[in-house]
Amino acid sequence: MYNGEKITAEEVIAISQLPFTGIVQTLPDTVPFTAPEQMERQSGQKTILRLGANESPFGMSPQAMQAMAASLREAMWYGDPESYDLRKELERRFGFAMGRTVIDSGIDALLGLLVRVFVEPGQSVVTSKGAYPTFLYHVAGYGGLQHLVPYLSYLNDLDKLAATAREVKAKMVYLANPDNPTGTYYTALEIAEFLRDLPADCLFLLDEAYVEFAPGDIHLPPETDDARLVRLRTFSKVHGLAGCRIGYAVAHPDIVKAMNKTRNHFGVNRMAQAGALASLHDAGFVTRVVQETAKGRQEYYDLAAELGFHALESATNFVAVDVGDAERAGALVNDLWRSGIFVRSPGTEPLNRLVRITVGTPEQRQKLATTLRGICRGNRKEG
Amino acid sequence: MYNGEKITAEEVIAISQLPFTGIVQTLPDTVPFTAPEQMERQSGQKTILRLGANESPFGMSPQAMQAMAASLREAMWYGDPESYDLRKELERRFGFAMGRTVIDSGIDALLGLLVRVFVEPGQSVVTSKGAYPTFLYHVAGYGGLQHLVPYLSYLNDLDKLAATAREVKAKMVYLANPDNPTGTYYTALEIAEFLRDLPADCLFLLDEAYVEFAPGDIHLPPETDDARLVRLRTFSKVHGLAGCRIGYAVAHPDIVKAMNKTRNHFGVNRMAQAGALASLHDAGFVTRVVQETAKGRQEYYDLAAELGFHALESATNFVAVDVGDAERAGALVNDLWRSGIFVRSPGTEPLNRLVRITVGTPEQRQKLATTLRGICRGNRKEG
Questions:
Q1: ipTM above 0.90, yes or no
Q2: Inter-chain residue contact B245 with A268, CB threshold 8 Å
């Protein structure tokens, strides 16, 4: 056994001199999101309704559940590093050629990989001010420079984004369509025009996490000649598999090759591969979730109007409610949390006037409505 | 809908000019490992025995299975990004303080993160020639320089590794203990001496993936004052959760902080967190797997002797058999695959004389023995 002998002070590296890279030494001590589990530990409050991270309250397809349960018997084996069967099904189902797809453990992992593959330290990326924080977390993590364009009436300002990309010679532009956290969207035609406006050597990361919830005119064709376009999709939202960690990129074959030279090849878990494949086979389930979500959005719009707030029309599984100012938004988020309801408000102006609420099941929506009415009535009495 | 209008050639980036980083442009088109699923697709042969990747043929603990099945009901929720409950249990069970642990989706992911956090392009790392390919894959992927020290009689050459680290001013040294692919090991005392020999500003990544299978004198104390030591552990081996993708690092709190500033916070799946926690609670299961594995190793030693080969004594769940030369090792791997038995032989001299075989269940070991005897008898008749 180890004799427990102490290493002398001279021999040990001084802790302040740990030889981190230059980039890592400058990184701040922040994380993209605080999870409800962390909020529970900090506050002692138990989560009763989980409506803050746009996870699907409708769960997964029964077929996916069955496939995942069966896959537990094979969970001692690594997953297929090529996720071949799943990519084959994506090709069959959506027309995404197998040479154009990469599966990884969610869009977050893919964003990190794409930033790593394209952005050298000191190079520029462009996105909206208030866009998905995890993208910017990765940009900072790889030493990229952020150029942020303010939202225009809760829409991504496409003209300004393209102009800024030209101005700063951006390596990449990131956009979610439909957008998170506003829920707004652009049509495929508008997106294609935006892509034409970007510099010839600027990548366009198009995050389509919520695309299944949007109107039909959002859909781009499965293939494009434009090597700049990288589309990102996930099984975390409409498929209800957020906890399984699986998503995919659709990109030019040369980009796919570069991602395959750098990604963690055995990073996707076997159960997720089985669940995602089964969920693709159950198109009826996705349709039902989309329909129920549309119903729930309408209920949220009506509830917001009843309480004197303005709900943004949403093409996603959440609704962003403009409650007038950041202070009120923060207070509402806190009041809801004290009732065990987890929702979020963006941290950045002017989006911090929004309270973003995931569309719940009918029972969850009713509980939310009752609680929210109670809070607003109480506030009016106090005020 | 998108009108399908073509983007003109002038407007589209030339594919050869895709703006990859300098590092990515120089990377070769290789991957660390070919999985049995890929071999099946290439050869048309079906895998009958999966004994090539040191996955546990004993599967997972029944308690882990039950916990994972139950966790499917919560699989629509992201996992806790802090893996708090699991880290708390690691502290209780092994004395690894919570401030010293990071959970990620397996040792592969942790190796990538540690290389990223410490190695700048052009900086040096040291390991054995023939060591775990995924570590070197990540080193190449982040632009690090590899300095490889030959094995000495199938042992990592500790003196030479330390001397090389001093000589090349290495940023980090990587070592698996017990070793993969040889199965040899050093005692905690020898490892502690090796650490003292390393330069003061050189990290030591100690991969303990197989530590549970080794004799008791391998165990380092849970805490050390030496900030250079980073230990890596996994649930993929003795716990039988390879397909779940979960492992952990034990490191100085400042290193943990740096990893938390860069890692993919929502990268670990919820089922894996549940399974790993339950498996830690089932210490009896681990003991039974270790005992059965020891029995299987002895059977492999005896089988190798019977066939005129030399099996290396192993402190892991696999046995490396020296079959004399690289050609014979390659032929045996191919012959076994033609019978549907997946094993591996290292690609690097002098380890390419080894055939590495995971310890199977009693039935699997019998099937392997029968097949191997048949192959060797056939070869003798032909020769």
A1: yes
A2: yes
